[in-house]
Design goal:
about 475 residues; alpha/beta; Alkaline Phosphatase, subunit A; ten-stranded mixed β-sheet; about 25% helix
Length: about 475
């Protein structure tokens, strides 16, 4: 590993007024909402969904208009979050649900653990099923509790969850939508316990929570369901709204917990979606879905595409960050960045060495201000994405996209055309050629992690249905389609 390039800045910053009252190593809480769309939080003007605690988080910190996902689907985008690499460089580029990280890859947890951090993850992993090199306890996490495989995570009533590859039974559950123990309650309680138990040491709490991803299930006894059960929408749309409210309620409980423990002033809380929103619950009245994740409710401007596509609808995510006394409140940032930037940002704030092979840039100047950081915010020369034949490159406001393998490339000026309606490839062949060159330079052949045995992994996938696993396979790779 090479040393952090801005170590001199870090030492100066820790003695500056911005850091004078803070211990040297801050806590990090990163909450990831599975599939929450850019225009779904209340602060974005959504008329249906209620997110008072996310609205407060954004009002007390900074929200980003151009914080972009690492990929357009769950597993690859999470790989970008934890490794600091873009999707042309990561080991997880498919969305099979159990494709593993390689043994020994640096992650946000593995770079913090040697510094004395407690490292915990709670929710949906998606970067290596049981029996693989990618399981979180082999990737720097002291504890990970929840779902390792994405198919397993498709039910909120699984017969068991996973803690460090061991099964934790959930009484009364039969998979799918049948059961008595709602998994998200249990996962959340474990996250709270982790924070409480580690209040006296620095910690990383990575919380990739599953709501509001479907199945769209929430107990009828949940107070969030009472708010939405009589709304004039299809029942799945009402369940989804209640799940968003549940997620928001739990965000509020995390913020309250940090205040109770006296940790607010030394904790960065980061919140984001994981990939662009889906056009769920389409009706004649709502052609982009009842809650219109990719349509601005104030202006009617739409993002083209949705989850699974590299148009803006698949990449724009809600992002907000709060750190009282460090991040100025009430800011709206238009800085262009994406998920590979999260690892180097956390590394700089915590004083961790940077892995030598990452693609991200630290966001510390954008978060804390150039004066506190001692330097202006660095800008990407370009941003890069690839996913199952799709390729996209962003250079400032220019965006080039090949929407499927072998298709003609398209070119858009997002400053004037954020909806990607007007293809400028024929008018600006020089710009397109330059971005295509970036794409060629960015792509590297994929090298995935491996399984010793997929027996337990297949068992977890079958647990979605409460059934028995199929016959075990050995030394293979997970390939089943998942989201």
């Amino acid at each position: 590993m090479r040393p952090l390039p801005c170590l001199a800045f870090l030492l100066a910053a820790l003695s500056s007024p911005a850091f004078a009252a803070a211990p040297a190593r801050p806590n990090i809480v990163y909450i990831v909402a599975d599939e929450l769309g850019y225009f779904e939080p209340g602060y974005a003007g959504n008329p249906h969904l209620q997110t008072p605690h996310l609205d407060r988080l954004a009002a007390e910190g900074v929200r980003f208009t151009q914080g972009l996902a690492g990929s357009a689907v769950c597993a690859p985008t999470r790989g970008c979050i934890v490794t600091g690499k873009h999707s042309g460089h990561t080991s997880v580029r498919l969305n099979g649900g159990g494709t593993p990280l390689r043994a020994g890859e640096a992650t946000i947890a593995s770079i913090l653990k040697p510094l004395g951090y407690a490292t915990g993850g709670f929710g949906k992993w998606g970067l290596g099923g049981r029996g693989s090199t990618g399981v979180p306890e082999r990737q720097g996490f002291d504890v990970f509790f929840g779902y390792y495989d994405q198919v397993h995570a498709h039910t909120y009533y699984p017969p068991y969850l996973i803690r460090n590859s061991a099964e934790v039974p959930l009484p009364g559950n039969r998979g799918n939508s049948e059961g008595t123990t709602y998994a998200q309650y249990v996962i959340f309680d474990e996250a709270v316990r982790f924070i409480r138990e580690n209040r006296d040491r620095p910690f990383l709490a990575y919380l990739p929570f599953t709501p509001p991803h479907g199945n769209f299930d929430i107990p009828d006894t949940d107070p969030s369901w009472a708010i939405f059960r009589d709304r004039p929408w299809p029942e799945p749309a009402r369940r989804y709204a209640a799940m968003v409210h549940l997620l928001d309620r739990q965000v509020g409980q995390i913020l309250a917990l940090l205040r109770e423990l006296g940790l607010e002033q030394n904790t960065l809380v980061l919140f984001s979606g994981d990939n662009g929103g889906a056009d769920y619950f389409v009706t004649p009245e709502f052609p982009r879905g009842v809650h219109s994740a990719n349509r601005d409710p104030r202006t009617g401007v739409e993002f083209r595409g949705k989850k699974g596509q590299l148009y803006e609808g698949g990449l724009r995510v809600p992002v907000a960050a709060r750190w009282p006394g460090r991040i100025a409140p009430g800011r709206v940032s238009n800085h262009l960045w994406y998920f590979p930037d999260i690892l180097p940002t956390i590394a700089e704030l915590c004083g961790a060495p940077l892995p030598p092979d990452i693609d991200g840039l630290s966001l510390v100047p954008e978060l804390l201000g150039a004066a506190a950081a001692g330097r202006p915010q660095a800008q990407h020369k370009y941003l890069y994405w690839e996913f199952v034949g799709q390729v996209a490159v962003r250079e400032g406001d220019w965006k080039a996209i090949q929407p499927k393998a072998g298709a003609p490339w398209e070119l858009y000026d997002l400053a004037r055309d954020v909806s990607e309606r007007h293809d400028l490839a024929a008018r600006h062949p020089d710009v397109l050629a330059r971005l295509q060159g970036h794409a060629r330079a960015a792509h590297t052949p994929v090298v995935e992690g491996t399984f010793t045995s997929t027996e337990l992994h297949e068992r977890d996938r079958a647990a979605k249905f409460g059934g028995n696993p199929p016959p075990a396979k050995t030394k293979g790779k997970a390939r089943a389609k998942s989201d």
